[in-house]
Specification:
Blueprint lengths: L8 E3 L2 E3 L51 H61 L20 E6 L6 E6 L6 E4 L3 E3 L5
Antiparallel strand pairs: 1-2, 3-4, 4-5, 5-6
C-alpha cells in the first residue's frame, strides 16, 4: 500500500480519512432569515449540556429583569449632578468670602492712609497755624503715600477734607476735621 493510500494520512495534498470512521450527521434548522441554509446545530445523544454562565465578580452590578440597572444608572446621574452643583455653589461661596476679605483689607488700607494723612495735617497745623494746600508738604511729618491707596486733599472753606480710594478707583472713604472718618463725601 502506498503512502497516499494509507487511511488517516495526507495524500495528494488532501486529507484522506480512515475508512472505518463514518462522517457525523449534522441536523440544521433555519434560524437566520438573512443567511438561508444556516441554522443551529442540534446536540446529538450523549452530548454534554451547556454550562451555566459564571457568576459576576464581586462589585459588578448584575442586570435584573425588573429594570433595576436602569434605576442604578439614574441614581448615579442624579448623585453626580448633585455633587457638581455642590462644587459649583461651594466655589462661588468661597469666591464671595474671598472677595469680602479683599474688600475688608482694601477698606482697612484706605482708612489707615486717611488717618495717617489726618495726623500729619494736625501736626502741620500745630506747627504753622494753617492747613496744607497739598499732600507733598506732609512727607516730613510722617505721612508716606502708598502705591495701593490714593489720598486726595479736597479744598474746603475751613478745616480740611481728605478722600481715599484704592489705586485707580473712585473714592470710597473720606476724613474731615469736623466729621472724622466716614463713607459719605465731605467738602
Amino acid at each position: 500500500m502506498s503512502q497516499a493510500e494509507e487511511p488517516g494520512s495526507w495524500g495528494a495534498a488532501q486529507w484522506q480519512p480512515e475508512a472505518d470512521v463514518p462522517p457525523m450527521p449534522v441536523q440544521r434548522q433555519p434560524s437566520d432569515p438573512l443567511v438561508p441554509g444556516w441554522g443551529v446545530v442540534e446536540p446529538g445523544p450523549g452530548a454534554v449540556p451547556a454550562l451555566p454562565s459564571p457568576p459576576a465578580p464581586a462589585g459588578v452590578p448584575r442586570r435584573r429583569p425588573d429594570g433595576t440597572m436602569v434605576w442604578v444608572v439614574v441614581a448615579a446621574i442624579v448623585v453626580g449632578g448633585l455633587v457638581f452643583v455642590a462644587v459649583v455653589v461651594g466655589g462661588r461661596l468661597v469666591a464671595r468670602s474671598t472677595q469680602r476679605e479683599l474688600d475688608a483689607v482694601t477698606t482697612a488700607r484706605v482708612s489707615s492712609q486717611l488717618m495717617a494723612a489726618a495726623d500729619a495735617i494736625q501736626v502741620f497745623r500745630a506747627q504753622t497755624g494753617t492747613y496744607p494746600t497739598d499732600l507733598a508738604s506732609l512727607g516730613d511729618l510722617g505721612f508716606r503715600p502708598s502705591a495701593e491707596v490714593t489720598v486726595q486733599l479736597i479744598p474746603v472753606a475751613s478745616g480740611y477734607c481728605l478722600a481715599g480710594a484704592p489705586a485707580g478707583k473712585a473714592p470710597t472713604a473720606w476724613y474731615s476735621d469736623s466729621g472724622g472718618l466716614t463713607t459719605s463725601p465731605c467738602g
